[in-house]
Specification:
The protein contains nine helices and 15 strands. The chain has 258 residues and is an alpha/beta fold. The N and C termini lie far apart (82 Å). Bound molecules: glutamine.
């Protein structure tokens, strides 16, 4: 009796081992052929209408756009939010594969990043308190205190064009902190991307206003670390072109900007 149960045990053990071997073989085959690539995408989730979070869900133009691009191009994404200033370093350290963060295409950044074709025309604006009557454009910023966001094209612009004329430039980690500074009267002006500040003024009923013409014609691009992308930028560009041609791109934009 004892011998009999031992034999059964051995048979069962052998059987399960073979079964196990088989299924793991099958799984690894599937992993190779069917599993899509997962790319880590960095966003600046304090940046409506491009990206923000509502009840833990990411939403906005950048979010919908990168999801639609991933669907078309056949890859998956995992979104990670961080302060804007952390996004380029995170691409460099390969913590991120892709950036979509209302990020302007600049010559300086092109040394580090391969950008997609432009997907949105933005441009920088000077913003002051609603009842400020003395600052009517960038020309009136001499000697004033200007709030900017660290690592942005707005920060670079303010340092290069206004600090040299005696303005004091103070830097913040995110856009809401910068808006607060002007609201509270601790800064005379701030520099922000036009579509973002005009959306925030209406949506959050901010007591701020845009003055003068846009300072530049910044355009947004989706970024990938230079030289590390293995055709990823082309995949993104092809998907973007298809989404523009089939109307999906415009539908996404219209959903957030009316
Ligand atoms: N467009 C600006 C830049 O690229 C600001 C982006 C942002 O604050 N998310 O620097």
């Amino acid at each position: 009796m004892k011998k009999f149960s031992l034999i059964i045990l051995v048979i069962v053990a052998l059987f399960s081992l073979t079964a196990c071997g088989d299924s793991s073989k099958k799984e690894s085959k599937e992993t190779k052929s069917d599993k899509k690539k997962v790319y880590k995408v960095g966003v600046d989730a304090t940046y409506p209408p491009f990206e923000w979070q509502v009840n833990g869900e990411y939403k906005g133009i950048d979010i919908d756009l990168i999801k639609a691009i991933a669907d078309k191009a056949g890859f998956e994404i995992e979104i990670q939010s961080m302060d804007f200033k952390g996004i380029i370093p995170a691409l460099q350290s390969k913590q991120l594969d892709i950036s979509i963060a209302g990020m302007s295409i600049t010559d300086e950044r092109k040394k580090i990043i391969d950008f997609s074709n432009p997907y949105f025309d933005a441009g920088l604006s000077v913003v002051v308190s609603k009842d400020n009557t003395s600052i009517k454009s960038g020309a009136d910023l001499n000697g004033k205190t200007i709030a900017v966001k660290k690592g942005t094209s707005g920060a670079t612009y303010a340092v290069e064009n206004f600090a040299s004329k005696g303005a004091k430039v103070i830097q913040f980690d995110n856009s809401p902190a910068m808006f607060e500074e002007v609201k509270a009267g601790r800064a005379d002006a701030l520099i922000e991307d036009y579509p973002v500040i005009s959306y925030a003024i209406v949506d959050q009923k901010l007591p701020l206003k845009v003055v003068g013409d846009r300072l530049n014609a910044d355009q947004y691009g989706i970024g990938v670390l230079k030289g590390s992308n293995d055709g990823l930028v082309k995949q993104i560009n092809d998907a973007l072109a298809e989404l523009k041609a089939d109307g999906t791109y415009q539908e996404i934009v219209d959903q957030y900007l009316k």
